[in-house]
Amino acid sequence: MASSRVVGLFSIVLICITIAQGRKALNTNNEFSASSLVNNDDGICKSMVETQGYTCEEHKVTTSDGFILSIQRLPTRRSGEKANKPTVLIQHGLFQDAVVWLWNSPDESLAFILADNGFDVWIVNDRASRYSSHTSLTPNDQAYWEWSWEELANNDLPATVQYVYDHTGQKMHFVGDSQGSLMAFVAFSQGNLLNMTRSAAMLSPIAHMGRINSDATRLAAKLFLANYAYWLGIRQFLPNAAEGLMFLKHICDILGLDCVNLLTPFTGPNCCINSSRIDYYLEHEPQPTSTKNLIHYSQMIRTDTIARYDYGLLENLRRYGRVHPPNYELFAIPKDFHLFLGMGRLDMLADVEDVKFLLSYEFKNHDPNNLVQVLKENYAHADFIMSVTAKQDVYDPMIDFFNKQ
Ligand SMILES: *[C@@H]1O[C@H](CO)[C@@H](O)[C@H](O)[C@H]1NC(C)=O
Ligand SMILES: *[C@@H]1O[C@H](CO)[C@@H](O)[C@H](O)[C@H]1NC(C)=O
């Protein structure tokens, strides 16, 4: 059915916009900035964790390129009892921040569920999201947006894993959703972080993107590549700012989609989202990302590679000494590394066909005893973070997996 194919890379964004349009006239003024919504001093601990009766610590980690990432720790159960199980580090996906692990009720939200199961929980906020900052740059500087998922994998994730390891002295379990899983695959493929990690649970795992079935996502990729110079000039991609809206409307026009009605196909495929909480979600998300990051995804979708950023012939020669950017070799991830993959049949970004290809190619020889797969037939991309039944569907099996390591 055509409508279910629409849910893709930009689905969450489109939906957010759609709902926002239904809710009130959108302020498309470019002055809009995510940080205007919540005062940084309020912090995630104070506004989202302590209010639910949990202990919370705010931490800051500085990356090798100067980004100051905000990290929260939930070191106890709600009862106050200290964690007696290993550390879990949770890394969110594109257009999000750590809030997504806390925004349903404590019985439904992954960070609280893990804390109540006795884990020492750490949740990370990406560079350029609301609660992060930089040692010298501001969002008005071009250099603040000069990165893609490569820098997240090679700078941010190593900085956070090392920081948490230094604090706890313990190897940790890792949870990565969507872009968070890509970051970890890329880090692990280079042999990084494995000596500080017990296992990894990848939700909506992103590696190959060549088989994505969504017309909207493929078109977005095409448009970004065709106009990359223009988009690079914009640098910050905030979906609910003027350029982002214009771009997404353009996609809807070309595909003949009535974007106002996108909510219907969306709440269909995403089986289990609590629609009465949508306004609340929209107070927190989406967070901005860099245009360069979206162009890098577009390259992956078009070329079906997991490669470094493609700067074009001359700049590739200068930077990499070769015409095409080098690949990240996921073959190199150790065969006995403990992996959990949580997949949704209706996920149009982490397309099941792409994950199947990963399993049959790079992970062909992975020890089956160390590879747990949970495929939910009724799940789409957002269910892994928003579903009111994610606990029984995905988080409980994930916790069983952690408990076995
Ligand atoms: C992990 O390996 C890196 C080298 O790849 C090393 O610098 C680091 O000290 C190691 N950490 C632990 C905890 O073994
Ligand atoms: C859905 O959200 C509403 C409003 O926050 C809440 O009262 C209700 O308990 C939620 N339902 C579920 C199943 O989580």
UniProtKB/TrEMBL annotation:
The answer to whether the entry has keyword Signal is yes
Coiled coil regions in record: none
The record's annotation in Pfam families points to: Abhydro_lipase
Which UniProt keywords are present, listed alphabetically?
Hydrolase, Lipid degradation, Lipid metabolism, Signal
Any single GO BP term: lipid metabolic process
Classify the source by domain of life. Eukaryota
Similarity comment: Belongs to the AB hydrolase superfamily. Lipase family.
| Origin species | Medicago truncatula
GO molecular function term, any single one: lipase activity
What positions does UniProt annotate as the active site of this protein? 178 (nucleophile), 347 (charge relay system), 381 (charge relay system)
Q: Which PANTHER family match?
A: LYSOSOMAL ACID LIPASE-RELATED (PTHR11005)
Q: Which InterPro entries match?
A: AB_hydrolase_fold, AB_hydrolase_lipase, Lipase_euk
Q: Where is the Partial AB-hydrolase lipase domain?
A: 47-104
Q: Which residues form the signal peptide?
A: 1-22
Q: What is this protein called?
A: Lipase
